[in-house]
């Protein structure tokens, strides 16, 4: 760990002001950032503790929910309105990490967590374009069982590790940002970037911007939603493939549907193609499988993760079948 | 292999031959008294009771002091920098920034490290403890990816870690052997283990196999595994003049003391190693570079040093289990009687490691078969020295052998348990000697009944609940009984009726101190609270390894020897005025706080009375057990019948063990609570071996890619179902207390039981561990 200074911000304005002094990082629960600092992958000169900022979880007038950037994962997963209106979000959060980590991890920190690619972590010996653009990628010809099958580039095949963000992507969540130039919002699905030739740039955030909240817009269909995570052990493992989905079926036909995938790409992967293909189609196993095939049509596997393509298709279809219940 | 090594192994082979000859002419009554240990017959003692661990409350309160918890005046903290190439040399190392960093006391590299002798490699001499015998920071040579290249001492751990990150090393890399296939291409040689070649031949296995009515012939693979004890390796070290004191986390205190003396040119008595508590050993807690480097740095700096490896550090500089590629070919007649057994394969080792993974060892004594070829070929890789890891050989060897037996059973249409029963040997097929105690058929029978084996449908894929395919599998567990030479014990009996027993053994969480308190109390006829066990200190008697599942037997025999001496002395002291007058040592037993005639309990005098009448405050008796000739007379092993029920998700392939039962035949069980915990722990490790654990070794540069508990998957609680444990409790008349080892056997057979259950659930035969979901797509 490299020496750093520490300051606690009591509100967003103070946080932004501290940041203006440069080379800083906002600190939430520290469950990812502190690990990366220990590995000297992150080397901030200054940490600005933003855990005193809003951690509220509040209902909006139209039936949505706004979650403060400092809200702890556990608080979100246990919240009554989230469990009843957005059950996939509760399930996604409890599918991740461990209770101790979820007690610490914040909303904003979860959205900003970095890949668990082992070569990204091996600061001493491995090449990584995410750590140092242009250096090369040791994962491409190395161990890549956990790596991306969608949207990867020749520079980077890392995945985004969050479970929560997969649910947020399916829910059309909106990220609230605040910077010195003012406030703005970005749909979560547009918030993370694909790697391209700059995998070091992971989001559309501008320097110094702070995530103050995440909004879940009202979504009545989300009462029929779930999150399924497929992994190598029953707990405390990152997703090989995960699926967050919500579906509304009317008279045996898909009225509306939301699908997002985890463990397959550099960002939470909103399955827009599959969604579009399903709307208006009969809610049958055949339709679900066809939609999954379509979504994965462009998948490109690495040496060790070809199984993920089929696994993703099956898991999408199984989740949708499960949510369809007797309607399918 | 060097000429020196070859010569040494030849010498060891000669010793084995001499021993065997000596044994042939030795009387069968080599054991004290020539009769079974009297404790086997004792009915109402502490042995066999589920006594809770005496160290439990201390650990629950955090009061048990582990190696990294000794706090010494002026102590500084160590951090290590590890090489990033597998072979070559350090061309340049820049330590200026590290030396100038806050709190730094010392930066040590090969340029300023004191001159040290290489560590004596484990098994090369009887007190050798080194994982390998490479020089430690003596020159610019790099031997593996992860080798320590610099050590920093600083006033705080954080300062040491920071300074380490400032060290810049330039390497001149050389071509390294890091690819298994290339290493095999360069040639292999027959492995050697415990002084004997890993090669056995009886009859003509190739011919018998070719002639067999039914055959199976497959290749099984197991990956590398790394040690992940809950307590990462650590030591706190101080020099007091020329005396070296090491508070270590070790399973070999006396070995470590002697080995450190060799390395630092000290008298053995000037090295004092303590290890009161160890947070798991499993074969990995021996002498590695961290203790040596920390001792060297402590000497250079004149300060006490604490070194506590990070989890990554454990992966970089502590050996693990090497990978194996094993062929098992079985031939049988149509009734399932084995006619041919071939178990052969390849395992890589580092040029300097002490161990070729000896995967054929469990096969030697497994089945009655007249034609057998067993062979371990070894190739060398430039890698961290591989080492002992819970049941080295047996853990992965039984996976291959017992999977193959399941495959043969299916081909024959015979129940897998029945197939094993039909091939039960009446003597050791390789050694030719009788078994000392082998009740594996009974373990299977009782286990099958309890588990509900009759509910199994032999047709794969025939049971399904929702998305889940359910299957059952079984396999044989086995691990040798060892009793290594060198043990000793001292009993001190006080005139207040208390006894203290001392031996240089280890408590790594197995329950050693508790069980030996029970055993000693029974031997002396004392209540538990009158017995104090002292261990974990190299100044105590004996050279006792907590390894090979032999510590309990080694201590047990040593205590028995000390007890016999003690009784002789007590009878002398008792003299002619005692009710014991005229009795011989083998006519009395320890009971009710004193000695009594074996058959006439009224002839009794208590210890306090004997000592007081003799004007003795205390009586000390040292015991050195006889050589382990029992191992030459009999084929001695622990056994188990393992039963697994698994659920495999038909959509995702996820395998999850839903039930497990281990039915063991391990002699007399001394403490049901601690023994069950050992069995369960082994089985949990076996679940990891079967389903999740794999060290990712990048063949491009020999680097371990997943050196963390996040990426190296050991089973978590949710992966572990209720595990039922039962045992025959049939004592072995040829061992102390009638007991066999229980520490390692749990991991054996488990991999095959799980793989066989997976096959029964899905019809997929996975021969390549770990059995991850991608291998189970239908």
Q: How is this structure best described in words?
A:
Chain A: Keywords: FAD, Flavoprotein. The complex is a heterodimer of chains A (328) and B (778). Chain A is of the alpha+beta class and 328 residues long. Chain A has helices at 12-19, 33-38, 73-78, 80-85, 87-94, 99-104, 107-111, 118-121, 164-170, 188-191, 272-278, 285-295, 307-324, and strands spanning 5-8, 24-27, 46-49, 57-59, 65-68, 174-179, 182-187, 210-216, 225-230, 241-250, 253-262, 269-270. Among the domains of chain A are: 5-51, 2-Layer Sandwich (Uridine Diphospho-n-acetylenolpyruvylglucosamine Reductase, domain 2); 222-327, Enolase-like, domain 1, CATH 3.30.390. Chain A is 29% helix and 20% strand. The mean pLDDT of chain A is 97. Chain B folds into four domains: 1-30; 38-59 and 484-627, Aldehyde Oxidoreductase, domain 4 (2-Layer Sandwich); 67-175 and 231-317, Aldehyde Oxidoreductase, domain 3, CATH 3.90.1170.50; 393-482 and 632-776, Aldehyde Oxidoreductase, domain 4 (2-Layer Sandwich), CATH 3.30.365.10. Chain B has 19 helices and 32 strands. In chain B, the strands form eight sheets. Chain B has a seven-stranded mixed sheet, sandwiched between helices. In chain B, strand 16 (324-332) and strand 17 (338-349) form a beta hairpin. The chains are: A alpha+beta (328), B alpha+beta (778). Chain A binds chain B through residues 1-3, 38, 40, 116, 118-119, 121-122, 124-126, 138, 141-143, 230-238, 240, 307, 310-311, 314-315, 318, and chain B through 82, 84, 102, 145, 158, 161-162, 165, 467, 651-654, 656, 691-692, 696, 698, 700-701, 703, 705-706, 708, 710-711, 713, 715-719, 772-774, 777.
